Amino acid sequence: MSATSSKISVAIPSTPEHVQYLPRLLLAYANGIEKPDEVVVSLSNSHQVWSRQRHNIDKMGNELFESFKLIQHQKKLSHGPNRQSAVEHCSHDIVSFFDSDDLPYPDRMITLRRAFADPDVVHVNHGFTWLGEPLAKNEEAPIPVLADTGFLVDAFFPQGVLKECTKASNTYGGVVPGAHFNPSMVGVTSGHVTVRKTVFGIVKWKDWNELRLGSGEDYEFNIECLFHFRKSLILNLPLSQYRVGHKPANRVSRWLRWGYRQFVGSCNRIIG
């Protein structure tokens, strides 16, 4: 199987706060070494985004990609359900998740296609660097592997029990010694995971009240993919650029943002 035969849908959950970053993200994917075969954006609380802004994003996506879908939800979806909603609209057998406020490396899609050219690969994670720093230079071949299924299963489930994972690490890449990391990597991304659609017969992205392992929804999703399918890889390459976290909003800032979103929603209803 050639790398180009592995078709990938990129699933991007977004919110009114992060929709401002979508044009730059879509351009980054369009200008990569290879484009995604499909891009699906799931927008929570879409009525709180100016209708013209939504129209422009939809128009831009359809001009840049062979297949583009902007799913507009009239309610708030947390991280897990927003990702799961995107999955339901993805056409291809491989789904790669990406956050709307981050940026991909130019070689992200071609590298993932090469990894999934192996039909025995089901679940792949990779490294990241900080947005704004120089891009690391990734070698073309072979794809370096930081951790394979055998290592990860032994580290997280030494007795074969799912909940053992919490004793090993509360981050998915935390079981790998830092000395083994590609020196250009900051860490391993959990949210920018790529899977075959077959995983969704057993595993799904969960809402906060559904989590069982005491950590984030991305940690639990990765752990369950590893535990149930035993066909996982962590690539020793940075393929994402993470935006440095925003400062926590104080009460006044949260109130102003809430008020602005309500104002936009009201204007959209009046405009129709």
Description:
The protein is an alpha/beta fold and 272 residues long. The protein has a single domain (3-243), classed as Spore Coat Polysaccharide Biosynthesis Protein SpsA, Chain A (Alpha-Beta Complex), CATH 3.90.550.10. The protein contains eight helices and ten strands. Strands 1, 2, 3, 4, 5, 6, 7, 8, 9 and 10 form a ten-stranded mixed β-sheet that branches. Helix 1 runs parallel beside helix 2 (51-64). The model has no long low-confidence stretch (mean pLDDT 92).
Describe the structure concisely for a colleague:
The protein is of the alpha/beta class and 272 residues long.
Structural class: alpha/beta
CATH topology: Spore Coat Polysaccharide Biosynthesis Protein SpsA, Chain A
Write out the CATH superfamily name.
Answer: Spore Coat Polysaccharide Biosynthesis Protein SpsA, Chain A
Distance between the termini: 49 Å
Catalogue the unreliable spans: none
Largest sheet: 10 strands, mixed
Count of β-strands: 10
What key attributes describe this structure?
272 residues; Spore Coat Polysaccharide Biosynthesis Protein SpsA, Chain A; 10-stranded mixed β-sheet; 10 strands; 19% strand
Protein topology:
Layout: E1 8-14, H1 22-30, E2 38-43, H2 51-64, E3 68-72, H3 79-87, E4 94-97, E5 103-104, H4 108-116, E6 123-130, E7 145-148, H5 149-156, H6 165-168, E8 187-188, E9 194-196, H7 217-229, E10 232-242, H8 251-271
Parallel strand pairs: 1-2, 1-4, 2-3, 6-10
Antiparallel strand pairs: 4-9, 5-10, 6-8, 6-9, 7-10
